[in-house]
Amino acid sequence: MTAPVFLVEEGALTGVFPGTLFPLGGPEGRHAVSVRRLRVGEEITLTDGAGNGAFGTVASVEGKDRLEVAVTSVRSEPLPEPRITVVQALPKGDRGELAVETMTETGVDAIVPWSAARCITQWKGERGAKSLAKWRSTAREAGKQSRRLRFPPVAEPMTTKQVAVLLADADFAAVLHEEGHSAPLATAGLPASGSIVLVVGPEGGVSPEELAVFADAGARPYRLGPSVLRTSTAGTAATALLLGRTGRWS
């Protein structure tokens, strides 16, 4: 089993090199000692979530919430090419966290919540802030679980007009749409670098008005296959397809 991953503050790994003793405290240190029960000599990975990682073993355990890591190697991952962003319409219930979790584990690079016209759930006020915090926490924990060094940021929720701007700036823009005239995503021409932005609509589908706005921004409709996936799983399936087709899984 690969070493468990623990998150440190961005920039904390600057200047860390093999032979460094790195202290891990706070909530992550408490989780490592009291929940994971790591002991001296066990392997551990540290990351800032921005592509930087330090690998080593537990050198000492101090109390219930602190340990020291003897760093044996360090690595910085370059930004992935092409970068994959999924614009996720807000599902009802906890299906949003499910979508974020599985997309993060699969390898998506960024997630954008979208308040689509046909979304049953709408993020407003304190409830919206709590929902966004849950999505971000889910992405963070899923990034650690899947042993990633670079975690996908979860943006502030966007309106349809804001999503259109994002699509217009992409090197490849697509809207998952189940209608028969939609081209298969499996045969779409994809860029070797730059950005791919994919829109996943709500359970009720993307409205004709939204499709028109996105088409004006350069986003064509595509389908995954003959079956219709739920909004909470479509983004994960599409991300896997794109990662395979772009060679990032090769």
TrEMBL record:
Catalytic activity from the UniProt record: uridine(1498) in 16S rRNA + S-adenosyl-L-methionine = N(3)-methyluridine(1498) in 16S rRNA + S-adenosyl-L-homocysteine + H(+)
Membrane-spanning ranges: none
GO molecular function, one term: methyltransferase activity
Domain Ribosomal RNA small subunit methyltransferase E methyltransferase: 81-242
Any GO BP: methylation
Keywords: Cytoplasm, Methyltransferase, rRNA processing, S-adenosyl-L-methionine, Transferase
Boundaries of every Ribosomal RNA small subunit methyltransferase E PUA-like domain copy: 24-70
Gene3D superfamilies in UniProt: 3.40.1280.10, Hypothetical PUA domain-like, domain 1
EC number of this enzyme: 2.1.1.193
Compartmental location: Cytoplasm
Taxonomy, superkingdom: Bacteria
A Pfam family the protein falls into: Methyltrans_RNA
Group of enzyme by EC: transferase
Family, per entry: Belongs to the RNA methyltransferase RsmE family.
Function summary: Specifically methylates the N3 position of the uracil ring of uridine 1498 (m3U1498) in 16S rRNA. Acts on the fully assembled 30S ribosomal subunit.
PANTHER family listed in its UniProt record: 16S RRNA (URACIL(1498)-N(3))-METHYLTRANSFERASE, RIBOSOMAL RNA SMALL SUBUNIT METHYLTRANSFERASE E
Listed name of the protein: Ribosomal RNA small subunit methyltransferase E
Species of the source: Streptomyces gamaensis
Lineage: Bacteria, Bacillati, Actinomycetota, Actinomycetes, Kitasatosporales
